[in-house]
Amino acid sequence: MYKPKKTILTAGPSITSKEIDYVLDAVKNGWNFHFNDYVEKFEQAFAKYLGVKHAMTTSSGTGALHLSLLAMGIGEGDEVILPEISAVASANVVTYVRAKPIFVDVEKDTWCIDPQSFRKAITKKTKAVMPVHIYGHPANMGEINKIAKESGLFVLEDACPSLGATFEGKKTGSLGDMAAFSFQGAKIVVTGEGGMLVTNNSKLFEKAAYIADLGRDRKRGSFWHTLIGYKYKMSNLQAALGLGQLERVESLIKRKRRIFEWYYKKLGSIEGLSMNTEKPWSRNVYWMSSIVIDRKLSITRDEFMKELKSRMIDTRPFFFPFSMLPMYKTNVDNPVAYHVGLKGVNLPSGVNLTKEEVDYISAQIIDILNKNSL
Ligand SMILES: *Cc1c(COP(=O)(O)O)cnc(C)c1O
After folding, report:
1. Cα(91) to centroid of ligand 1, in Å?
2. What is the pLDDT of residue 112?
3. Structural domains in the chain plus CATH codes
4. In contact, 69 and 101? CB cutoff 8 Å
5. Ligand 1 centroid to 38 CA: how many Å?
6. In this prediction, what percent of the chain has a pLDDT beyond 70?
7. Which of 191, 235, 249, 310 suits a disulfide with 242, CB 3.0-4.6 Å?
């Protein structure tokens, strides 16, 4: 039986000579008149891949989300509805603009925002909804857009982990008013740290670009600023890496999907275990192959993960429900989010993972479940 020599990690990129060539070129030549060449190429290729009008590189997914809310003019006294379960950035950016994040429940199978919970949470103060395409599965954008339109709300997609995922054949990031992607080191396409803001709305894009460019008034010259803006830029070096990665994105997604299939074959029919889903209207990119432990065990989720760690398998817990965290503590009733958030585990999902490793991991999971079932 196969045994790993070192701990199998949850993520890890695939870097080929293409990326290395681009980055070397940027290091050697990407200065002075060429300081922005890869940034422009990366933005253009990204917009084309998604099928959107505008794309702007940022220093992180968080930065892209923050800029989007600023461009929408959301601020003090406003409410933004988002799912209980996401990376902390999704809630933080709402707080950055002095608006209030309102946490609603998620769906049992997609783990994305539940459209009915969203509808119920709308008040006079609601200005926007932020569906999160969590772990690579798109939120139900048909319902969400419909409800948002009825109430005149902006839709900001947190597409940070879902590059290449589709809803009814359209890519995530092209489905709302604005969207943010992340290229942080664990994501599908990596630039070390980095992000992208995208939109089809030219007005919102220009506003976001102005805020992101330190509030510079370009007509008046380089150093005339008319607003306290932000600096959320991506460097040309990172964009070179991003462009190389983007040119390989479909093959990276293929690997993510294959990894999930390997897991699913071994774990998909185990009782009391649920895994990522793929709705008929979607393409899941399976950023993180995951399990939710629905059955009663004699050990906690954290002990379960510790046991895997002792067998050389690194895992991540699902994101905790926001309303549990000290700075967002509120009394809410989001039972599905509390179940999956406290019972979910992200399995190793790096694109270089092998079938042998997945088979090993699956066998260890089954063994631990069997030994600790009540
Ligand atoms: C990764 C991620 C973010 C944050 O992206 P950064 O580039 O790390 O700022 C936000 N939301 C979700 C859902 C993510 O997965």
Report:
1. 11
2. 98
3. 17-246 (3.40.640.10), 249-372 (3.90.1150.10)
4. no
5. 23
6. 100
7. 191
Which atom of ligand 1 has the smallest separation from the CA of 184?
Answer: 7
Ligand 1 site, CB within 6 A: 60-62, 86-87, 89-90, 132, 134, 158, 160-161, 182, 184, 195
pLDDT confidence band for 218 (50 / 70 / 90): confident
Sequence letter at residue 102: I
Q: Tens of pLDDT along 139-167?
A: 999 999 999 999 999 999 999 999 999 99
**178-206 average pLDDT score:** 98
How does pLDDT run across 278-326, given as a tens digit for each residue?
999 999 999 999 999 999 999 999 999 999 999 999 999 999 999 999 9
Kindly give the number of the ligand 1 atom that is closest to the alpha carbon of 161. 15
Nearest CA to ligand 1 atom 2: 160
Both tokens of 279, joined, read 């709705």
Return the residue whose CA atom lies nearest to atom 6 of ligand 1: 61
**Of all atoms in ligand 1, which is nearest to the CA of residue 186?**
1
Over range 75-80, report the average pLDDT.
98
